[in-house]
Amino acid sequence: MFTKSSTGITVTAEVHGISTPRAIHIHTNGDLGALDGTSTGPHYNPEGNPHGLPGQGLHHAGDLGIIEDFLDGNAYYIYKIRSKPDFVLSDVIGRSVVVHENLDHGNDPTCSNGNTTGASGKRHYICVIGIP
């Protein structure tokens, strides 16, 4: 869920059935047509920034970090996106949120695809961002 306030946007998620850290990203397309999730396209990145993690310098607007809180086989995520010019709530309506198979390594140069995906792996859980 994306909630707008005067200080930014809060992203919250509850994912059932996982108990290990996973990357979470906004992807460009809200297309769920491909079973493997590839139709969601690349990470949402209107500014053309390198991949990274929130709070660690430049990163894609769609780089939301890592889901790390678990309870009874469910994962819980909350992140506050401070107001910034490259993230406007209306710009992400119709795009997708993807939870990947692995955690996000940010822009670690020792990881394959570190500068594009954070080596986060396959797309396991996918939804389209809509209007509640």
According to CATH, what is the topology?
A: Immunoglobulin-like
Assembly context of the chains: single chain
What is the level 1 CATH name? Mainly Beta
- Strand sequence of the main sheet, in spatial order? 1-2-6-5
* Count of spatially separate domains: 1
Inertia-based shape: globular
**Sheet with the most strands, sense and barrel status:** 4 strands, antiparallel
Query: Structural class, from secondary structure content?
Result: mainly beta
- Rounded to the nearest angstrom, the radius of gyration is 14 Å
Provide a count of the helices: 1
Uncertain spans: none
How far is the first residue's CA from the last residue's CA? 9 Å
Helix content range: under 10%
Classified in CATH, the superfamily is: Superoxide dismutase, copper/zinc binding domain
